[in-house]
Amino acid sequence: MTTAENRRQVLYWRLLARLFDPEEQATLESGSMAIVGDLDLPAALLDPAVSVDTVVQRFPHLEAEFEGLLSGADGAGQDAVRRAALVSKLLLNVFGTGSGNVTAGQLARWQTDAGWFERALGCRPGALRGRAAAAGAGAPGAAAAGAGGGAGAAGDDPGGTTAGTAPGTGFDVNLGPALAAIEADLVSRMHLREVLADPRLAKQLTPSMSLIEQLLRDKDNLDGVALANAKALIRRFVDEVAEVLRTQVAQASTGTIDRSVPPKRVYRNLDIDRTIWKNLPNWDPAEERLYVDRLYYRQTAKRITPARLIVVVDQSGSMVDAMVNCTILASIFAGLPKVDVHLIAYDTRALDLTPWVHDPFEVLLRTQLGGGTDGTVALDLARPKIADPRNTVVVWISDFYEWKEQAVFDGMAAIHRSGARLIPVGSVSSGGQQSVNPWFRQRFKDQGTPVLSGRIKKLVAELKNFLAF
Question: Residue 253: its pLDDT value, please?
């Protein structure tokens, strides 16, 4: 047996081990990690918690390799080993669903992975699951397939085969019902819907960021009492976070005083200590009296020109925390005098949410979490809003894993050169964790606009220093 065959077997033995037992086998894991490294493939291929969508987004050159991956021959030598690594990623993510409760985020991730699996078979994303649902309308799998949002009609298959078969792949099994059954199982393990349908149980839920993420992802599948309870939980969480952020905004520094403006000579601005100190030479020891020949006043001048704040938020699946925090923060600044706030959310499409910026609850209900990341569509919305660059700050919150890296950076660099203040932010969370594309991080640093730490307090301070209210 050749070395390539041995390495290929290690990858497939690891796949089988993880499918039947979620616990890692140290020898197989370390061996697989070494093989993937030698092939110059990302370690994320071995992590079932990382979606194929995320892998392709961060390593775009792999997209072509996943396309039609299961519709061709195995190849030989290193090509066969490389193919085995990619196939293992697809099969583990689609069929290694484990057990226990499922979050809306996990369901959404599985649906995108299933779409890549279908593309690897030469089908349209959702085609196999769509036909399975149509063939078994009324069965549990039908509702699950509909939740995937990618269901196709019976004629969507380019090969025109029977329901659920994979055209031109050499697979004899009927994969459509199998995928639909897995999706139905994931949906059935999302007990949150049952809880929301019971007002008594729903009131016992404690709003948290993870719960809000599930509600936002699953809101389109809720109705009636369940939807009303979900909205009430989102409203409670928004109000709680808003109260904390208002305190942080009130406590943050307000920037430097504008000393080019003479102080207003009124009693409330009188600087008693400085006046006494400056007039000490006029002290008369005999009469024990201080003669004051000049009064000194504090300078309190602040910005009087309305400032424009443009907040651009990446609403892809990895940025839920930022989306929630920034919509609330934008609403707080929108309520302050002399601040004109605009809010844009984007993934592969951009939404101008400015009409609802005063109500973060409404903003969150209008967002659609997930999808890819294309900052050029957000740039097209943001640029016309920069009417007075010197009086504008653009806050861009994202992990900056973009499909069109150079085009997005060039657009941001143009905003910076125009004189507007550009503040790139890696994330906005209470803990401050952030994962930022190193390509963007270095270029922002070289430009003089380094990526801000993810802690929201730092962003609040930066904004108050610029707005100086």
Answer: 46
Residue (of 349, 315, 318, 313) closest to 109 by Cα position: 318
Q: Which two tokens stand for residue 9?
A: 């077997």
- End-to-end distance of the chain based on CA atoms, in angstroms? 74
Q: For residue 158, how many other CB atoms are within 10 A of its CB?
A: 12
Contact 326, 429 (CB under 8 A): no
What's the CA gap between 33 and 28, in Å, rounded? 8
Q: In angstroms, what CA-CA distances link 214 with 207, 317, 440?
A: 11, 11, 30
Question: What's this model's pTM, rounded to 2 decimal places?
Answer: 0.59
Amino acid at 465: N
d(CA 119, CA 456): 40
**Closest C-alpha to 463, from 361, 326, 350:** 326
Contact 88, 14 (CB under 8 A): yes
CB 331 within 8 A of CB 359: yes
Residues in Cβ contact with 68 at an 8 Å cutoff, skipping those fewer than 6 apart: 119, 120, 122
Sheet holding 339-346, edge to edge: 350-352, 339-346, 307-314, 392-397, 421-425
H helical segments located in 96-223: 104-120, 127-135, 140-147, 175-188, 192-196, 199-202, 209-218
DSSP, collapsed to helix, strand or coil, labels residue 340 as: strand
Instruction: Indicate the pairing of strand 392-397 with strand 283-284.
Output: unpaired
DSSP labels for 415-451? Answer: HHHTT-EEEEES--BSS------HHHHHHHHHHT-PP
Which of helix, strand or coil describes residue 247? helix
Helices (H) and strands (E) in the chain, counts: 20, 7
| Closest to 424 in 3D by CA, of 442, 246, 407, 406 | 442
pLDDT tens per residue across span 377-410:
999 999 999 988 988 989 888 888 888 889 999 9
CATH architecture for the domain at 307-467: 3-Layer(aba) Sandwich (3.40)
Bin 211: left if φ > 0, else alpha if -120 < ψ < 50, else beta.
alpha
Beta strands (DSSP E) in 134-290 are 283-284, 289-290
Closest-CA residue to 366 (of 382, 384, 351, 381): 351
Range list for CATH 3.40.50.410 in the chain: 307-467
Rounded to 5 degrees, φ, ψ at 190 are -90, 80
pLDDT for the residue numbered 161: 37
- The list of the chain residues with pLDDT below 70 reads 1-2, 72-77, 129-173, 245, 248-261, 300-306, 317-321, 337, 369-371, 427-435, 453-457, 464-469
